[in-house]
Batch of 3 targets.
Target 1
Amino acid sequence: MAETDVIAPMVGKIIAVHVKPGDSIKENDPLVTLEAMKMEMPVPAPQAGTIKEVYVSEGDVVESDTILVTIE
Amino acid sequence: MQEFLRLLDKLVHMTGAANLTVGNFVMLAIGLGLIFLAIKRNLEPYELLPIGFGILLANLPLTRLMPENVAAVEVFKNGDFFGGIQQYGVLGVFYYFGLYYWNILPPLIFICIGAMTDFGPLIANPRMLLLGAAAQIGVFIAFFGALFLGFNLPEACSIGIIGGADGPTTIYTSAKLARHILPVTAAIAYIYMATVAFIQPPIMRLLTTKEERKIRMKQLRHVSKAEKVIFPAAGAVIIILLVPLSAPLIGMFMFGNLIRESGVVKRLTHAAQNELMNIVTIILMLCVGISMSAETMLKWETLKVLCLGLVAFAMGTAGGILLAKIMNFFSKNKINPLIGSAGVSAVPMAARMSQIVGQEEDPRNFLLMHAMGPNVAGVIGSAIAAGMFLTLMDAMGRV
């Protein structure tokens, strides 16, 4: 099955990570919660699958384009 | 003995309780209501909490915190400083000099807003300037509406500016043109900014189709440091050359942004974003609250301004959305019309609404950063609109 990288949609701070490697997820399940402009936004999964890798942890500041999670 | 009783009677009449009017009770309830909303609902607490407490103070009788008739206060006699304001204490002095006489608080807060603004999304996508401009349509509709409802020209300018959804700009314009309605316009501007979350989404849903709300926008390109430094400097020069009377606001706004982007004065940037912002917010918001006495607020005019403000706000929201839809006819890179509503300058509340309404339709659509483009353009737009009104009134000899 193809691997998909989920990238940060914008500059922001990771305030929660909801998945760990090995978790199986459905489409639109929240992967992490991103905070930008004092607003919290869930970053949902683009497809169903299994989490292969999580690259960020709580408190990280991410640029847009940063890879957050790989799904397979 | 009789002497003593007369004194006692006099003292009783000098208590605030003996002098409370029905209007005071109404305003006290409004003040408490705002404090409640700020604390319990976390609704724009930085504005509503000090405004609410200011209203309480303003409606407790006999405090001499504020002159009953600001216009009649004589501070200068025969060109010499006379000091007629001192007896009114700290809030009276802040109000008189900060807003009424010098009008320095709004420009000061613009330094702070500039230092907190990232023009990146606007520089990456300059056509967003058009959306920021389109949202100013609300300003002009409210302006003509106010004239129609019998307000005079300077009052209509001050009321129109509410449609820009920018508190400091509204205060600045009113303090220059129509000081007697400043408490009304300021209060209503802040009330609508606090309720953006209720006013905008229904209009946004009404004017867009499901497909439009689902449009995903191309990720913004990277903006270089040089671009970010040049923008405020060049922007200030160009705008002030075109509309000189926007200089007090635009000049401070762009200065604040320049110190931020220059990167060489970190202490100044930090101070503008934190200490200065907080100090000016406290003083400015208390001043707005303290000006809201029952006599100034509880009038028919206030109700008219409330309606005009709502129309202005709704039209501004609609203007941005509709222009975005029109622009989509001519461009390959489609714009999600939901970001058009962020052209009203309530930063970043209006941009948050674009994000929220967009994500309702498509959870993987992130419009926040795209919406910041029109949002910051809206701040520039309403400051320019204010400058244009000031120029118009100056040309007509009404300042």
Note: The first strand of chain A starts at residue 4 and ends at 7.
Target 2
Amino acid sequence: MAGPRLRPRILLPAALAFVSGFAAAQELAGFEGFAADYCLACHDTEKAKGDVDFESARFSIESPADAERWELVRLVLELGEMPPHDAPRRPDDAERSAQTAALADALAAWSATSNRGAGRTGLRQLTSTEFANAVQDLFGMPLSREMRDRLPQDEELENFDVIAEAQRMTRDRISTSLDAAIEITAGCFAWLEANAHPEQKWVPGDDNPWELRGTNVAIDSKEENGPRTERMRLILAALNRGRELDPDEIMSAPMEREPLAIGLRDSYVGVRRSRYQFHEKGLAAMTCASRTIAVRPPATECGTPNVVIGGRYRYRVRAGSIRDPEGKLMIRVGIRSKRAFRKESCLPHVRTLARCDAPPIEQPADLEGTVWIAPGERLVVQMISRTPKFHRLREEDVLASRMPGLVVEAIDLELLRDEDVATLREGLFGPTGARRETRREPLRELLRRAFRRPIDDELLELFDTNYPQAEVDAGRSTHRAAVADLVGSVLASPWFLFVREPEDPDDPFAWAERAALFLWRSLPAPELLDLAEAGALDEPAGRRAALARLLEDPRSERFEHDFLDQWLELDKLGLMEPDLSVYPEWSEDLERSLREQTRGYFQRMLALDRPLTEFLDSDWTLLNETLCQHYGVPGSVRPAVAPVDLAPEHRIRGGLLGMGSLMNLTTNGTATSPVLRGVWVLQSLLHRFPDPPPADVEPIEPDIRGTTTILEQLAKHSEVASCATCHRSIDPFGTALETLDVVGLERAHYRRVEVRELEGARGSTEKAFLVDGAPVSAGTTLPDGTFVDGLAGLKRWFVEHDELFARALTAKLMTFAEGRSMTGADQKRVDSVLRAAGGPRAGLRSLVETVLVGL
Amino acid sequence: MALDIFTTRTNRLDWTLLAPAAMNPLLRAPLSRRTCLRGLGATLALPFLEAMLPRGATSVPVPRRFVAINLGLGLHPPAFFPKESGPDYETTPLLRALDRFRDRFTVIEGLDHGIGGGHYTAQSSFLSSVDYRASDVARRQPTLDQVLAEEIGTATRFESLELGVELVHPHAEGGSVNRHGVWLPRIQLPKAAFRSLFVTGTKGEPYPAALLDRKQSVIDRVREQSRRFERDLGATDRERLDRYFTSIRAVEDELDRIETWSKQPVRPSPRPIEWPSQWDMLTHERLMLAVMALALEADVTRVITLIINGKDIVMKLKGVTLGYHNLSHHGMRQDKIDQLLTIEHKHTEYLAHFLGELSAAETPDGSTLLDNTVVLFGSGLGNASSHSNKNLPILIAGGGLAHKGSLKYDATNKRPLSNLYVDLQQHLGVEADRFGASTGRLGSFD
């Protein structure tokens, strides 16, 4: 939930005698004439419409309250809300923008002298996401799902979690830091142990990449996948004895031959049996296991044992279908954790890594990539249905093994070794870490990376005392416990948990820190710290070069992901599932495709430095087969989304506003609401934060029986004068989008469910039909007086006012980068960043770089 | 490490594993119930003996307890509120399951907090009357359960217990807020709740004694060393760092508390819980309530909050085909209302079972647990279909209150729900005549 902004009534009384002791008053003399010309007709002392009075106003900024009020005046002018479009006299655009610019200047000048910490972020915390990423990058080991779930949730303001002002230091933040240190230390020791016993590789052969070994191979004794075969028992027995496996012995063990079939239905029908076989490339499995998931369609899966040592793994999966001539099946590779609340994935417990159509097993598909796997998680291969609707299977067919199935030939999982991290781990957790002299340099390096700056001897000595050397030497404590304490003291210390605003604005370490937090949502890598130390980040050119490397790194996906979630609230997609009786086209596949479209669009904009205006309108978008069918656009790429050129008749789908994802997340799932969508447009695309409705307003009850439309209900609502003030600027943006329904399809009528009685052979039955309800009318007058009709009109308005959007996006990026909300006083800086990047038609990447270079 | 008291085969409890590992002779160790059972060779449940009460509780003042159950999606008003007022009202579809307790609960119509905001405020403001959207962290006021916990929760192992049956981040906003304006995390699995209450004696991860010591000394050093960090900060930043030091102190307090209680034995209730092999949301809800009854019986806590948030799960109930949240937006379609009521019946049915367990449990003074436990059951949504926060469904049970059957207030008079909270507060011994947005007492149970 976005933090609301207090929006006081605009009273501008001269008598308000608050004078700041520090600030130099900013005169707004130029505005007085403008107000006299255009505003006084309504906003004189007598009428004071909307409680705004310019007649007795003081045309200067002398207090924070003044600044807030004049900022509101600036916002209203900028959008052209005032003077109203039916006013007898209206300024032309040039005059209006000159006044808004003058106001922005005055606000900036006032805050510069007000000494109120404006323009300063101050001490900000690592958010929980940043904390988890930082620990992962620091030790090369992700925190377990349980641990991540225990990290406190961040307070949000303007939908961003990085804003210092809203952040809250809590007990949990510190106690979870200590617990994270214990978990990480345990992981690092397990890793050292596994490294010390390379003979425990459980697949013979030097070229074999199977790296789950040592303690890793302790396969969960509560194996869920049904009875084990003789061969599996042998493998397990060998593993438990800790000896190498004899492939001949294994391969000669009896094993079931017949592949099994898996039923796909909304409630699972299947056979519970599993089979593992030994493959020359590691563990191969083909399995049928029943697994019912309460919320979503079931998936059948097989996978590796739970991983004990967290880290970055390379996975390779080879699989194909059997008895599937119609190509109904797909393969999905994912990470299953024991418990995860649903945010990204549709299946609550599985994070998808890759998926593809299942080819016949004779030409199996190879899926591979690298992935972070946390302790307690495992890699699974799932069989899912290609079509969103599930095939209805007959049980006897399933039992007779006539149904399509998936054969997983091989799953290879290899723990990758990052030399940088490995050296640090060995130095600190290994035997060298147990002695004060040899611990010194590894500890200095850990502190340098964790605290993002060079470490002097004083700080090094200070932290070294956190290793209870005397206790260890006397045998009262172990190295393992002592090093956990040391790591705990690092992770709970303010140097790690806080981001400081540097005294010297050109401090290269502070810049590296903030650039890394922005693009990687994590600590700067050691190489970046090296650059800072070498003075390579002092000049814009050096910073640009560093940014290019940050953006190249896969870690920059975290920026694309988190920024999009916070800017467009994309994380809310799917939280409100549409009513399937009204929107039968909704499916898990559609939801995922819609999400991928929006994410992919942003990624492509960034990678290709596409102009910002393409967020508003474009002749391309990203689609797959599911989306093509959904939107009615020709094309058949699958399963991943790919760029598609839009013919003129489909141009409506270009840009953000044509995306079903955003149209869905701005509804309650059942019905569209012009208010919700209007607020979303204002917040996300125009960076304006309307007041929450007053407490005593009774919300509109949606009536999906089809007797009245939401617009008719809303019209009544807006007749009330107190509501009209705000709704006049909110509703039009949402009303124009009424042409798109809950799932983002164009409509001329509201959908209505009609229950009809049908006379059949066995008497009458009731059946629900979808019929056209009341017609949609999306013609509306925007706050600046422009009449638009539907999405096309709204897009046109946005294209004509691309500067408003570009400023909003710049402000969002700067908020995310600086950790504070951008106010009127920052508008001048926002504008100059945007100008430096190339104005409203600047490329997205250029804009991001400009924001970051100037940090 | 945590004792694993679940034998893998039956998941039944083996209470012998609960014997305390070490007892501090300085603390007068209360007698464990198990020891009693063993000594007497008894197999039947015994009444609690005075000696089994925690230290300092020997005078046996009747303990006061408070349970709040907050339904995220409300209750369909026409099926909940009786038409008549007074004790002889005709029961309603949703109240039918509770009818056997008719003289021990009161249904109240016509109260709300006078704030809007739909789901968000419905859940987050129900126990506080504060619209957290509009108030910054510093001015956040604690929720009713936390205010009460400070008064009636201090003599037990846990001052309060926060539970949730929901599909959100355990730290997500919307549960209880403590005095420092912090949202408290909720335990979301009945098994986890059970374990933390009875197995390790801590709310979070299990703390072996040695680890506890180490954590204390790490925290101690971190606090000392952070003074160096403070050196080069400006005034505003120092203020923020102050909160860091406050949090450090809170961690120390928590560790101290865990240490104290880890030396006290747990007095478990002899009733084991059968954990099912299949879980769904309603099973969670039923078992959470079972754990809550156990917790009250064993007196490990006296203040419990349970959040039940439906999200859009399709409940495994006959005739229910749509998600819970979806159904709550029934848009007046009868078929959806019917499905919704099937789910809501379960809520009141489980509540009735919970009240039944409390009324069956005797306390040392001879009264039942229900007699000294105030149960507040309700929702911050008056009408989920329109997201209305007006005229909230409220049911108060037990607690030795003078129950009135059905109470109806004229909603147009805008009586704050907080007034009821003032009544409850006073009834439970908190000497305060205000709570949140209250304008006075409601006086409904006088």
Note: Chain B has eleven helices and nine strands.
Target 3
Amino acid sequence: MHAFANPARFLRIARPLTPWLFWGGLALLVAGALCGLLLTPADYLQGESVRILYIHVPAAWLGMGGWTGIAVAALVQMVWRHPLAGVAGRAIAVPGALFTAICLVTGSIWGRPTWGTWWEWDGRMTSMLVLLFLYFGYIALARASAADGRGIGDNGGVSRVTAIFALVGAINLPIINRSVVWWNSLHQGPSITVRGSTIDMAILWPLGLTVLGFSLWFGAIVLMRMRAILAENKIEARLARMAREGLSEGMGESGGEGAREGRVA
Amino acid sequence: MNHWPYIIAAYGLTALGTLGLSVASWRAMRKAEALADALRRER
């Protein structure tokens, strides 16, 4: 992991990787969405609305996966002071929040024809909404700490408070995962687990394409945002150095004139 | 009940969100990297 601690080494890998992840992800998710819309049969109970599955499930997984990434980055930043961990956390936050919002919105749209309601304050939906608010809190804290230059190691990372917030917020992840088991819910129980799926393969197969596609696209967006943060750090460092050099040159000139004046006097 | 308006709305909003974030992230990256390169050349 520390082999990638050097931002220059990271950028050498990230620059060629970004377009591959972006275009590869986009191709897979478009293919998966088209297959899900045009090739799979309607569900015997839910009818055509089951097709929302192909965007709702990847969005839910990436919303939760994003916060997992932020929590791991916070831990790495606090324990090993990895210079890119805080930058990665900041870069994950916005796409993670977007996918959480997409999960909530598509779930609400899916709920109307299947449950007869847009929203229900049950465990799954409420805990997912809490995740979205956690993202908003993290984004605000990370921006404030970056603007104040209080990031750990002062490299565009996030402050210790922000990192602790990320770790504490991770408590919500198992709650989201187990909410449909612990509490009564309109939301269906776990249908895709490590032991397999209760969804018929005729409906399930395009989900693999959209999950992989959205994941690659998510990776590309995180790399783009990390590159932007690293470039902004460079700009700030160079501007500060130029200002210091300008100031010292100015002081040198005025000091020289003063010395000359002193000699004349 | 016709489900297709709901499906179209769900896919449309997802496309809008992902496209918007793609453009915003790409523009922010290009702008920052171009400025950083310009400052490096200036030195």
Note: Residues 4 and 10 of chain B are 10 Å apart (CA to CA).
